[in-house]
Amino acid sequence: MSKAFDRVDHSLLLVKLKHIGLPTSYLKWLSSYILNRQQQVTVLGATSKPLQVASGVPQGSILGPILFLVYSSDILSPCDRGAMYADDLKCYRSINSHDDAHLFQTEINSVSVATENCHLNFNGLKCSVLKITRKKNTVQYPYQLNDTPLPLVSKINDLGVLVTSNLDWSDHTYKICKKANKMLGLLRRCTLEFHNPQTRRLLYLTIVRSSFSYASQLWSPQKVELIQEME
């Protein structure tokens, strides 16, 4: 979704907080926290006039993500199977016939309506269809989002993990190795005068090794050539 955290409607958010059974005293506190906020910008010593914040949740705060989760909790309700992480959303279904595809399109339409009801918008440039299958002949269907055709892609970047249509993790492994090798070279050049090996080790674990451990339970390579590439 596009600028989802900035588009949260304050009145609707308070209605949803009440709907989940939040006590009145908490609702009053959150209402005071959310409503009538102002913001201003200071540049080179000059400060702008305060402007009323009409929507959104405070980003960088502890409550911000929690409030957004409550606000967007019913967006996926029309979808039989789906997942949502912050403002990143996925719907999926097993497609074995044209009727299955038509039903999936109906779910996409319903999710789109639910999103609009929350005053949120999808980022059309980041929306696509990925078929995960090893079949050569699959059901063809012109999926759309808000009357705009959704492109059929062979791979997507899902929260930093490169997922392909055949669930082969070669592309992701090579991408990670290239990134780690680049960061390792940078680390070597920048730590030539570091005499403490513990500091260099900490930097290596933080900058380089973390690339290999992120989501490795999902993409950890099984092919010999990929394991050798990582080593």
Class by helix and strand content?
Answer: alpha+beta
The strands making up the biggest β-sheet line up spatially as 1-4
Mean pLDDT: 88
Domain module count = 3
Query: What is the beta-strand fraction?
Result: 5-15%
| Total number of strands | 12
Tell me the radius of gyration. Answer: 23 Å
Query: Helix and strand succession?
Result: HHEEEEHEEHEEEEEEHHHH
Largest sheet: 2 strands, antiparallel
Q: Separation of termini?
A: 37 Å
Structural notes for this entry:
Pfam families: RVT_1. InterPro entries: DNA/RNA_pol_sf, RT_dom. The protein has 231 residues and is of the alpha+beta class. The protein folds into 3 domains: 1-73, no CATH class; 77-153; 169-229. Helices cover 43% and strands 14% of the residues. It is built from 8 helices and 12 strands. The chain has helices at residues 10-19, 24-34, 63-71, 98-117, 170-190, 197-213, 216-219, 224-230, and strands spanning 38-39, 42-43, 46-47, 51-52, 82-85, 88-91, 129-130, 144-145, 148-149, 152-153, 155-158, 161-164. The strands form 6 sheets. It has a two-stranded antiparallel ribbon. Helix 1 (10-19) runs antiparallel to helix 2 (24-34), helix 1 (10-19) crosses helix 3 and helix 5 packs antiparallel against helix 6 (197-213). The longest helix has 21 residues, at 170-190. The radius of gyration is 23 Å and the shape is flat. The mean pLDDT is 88.
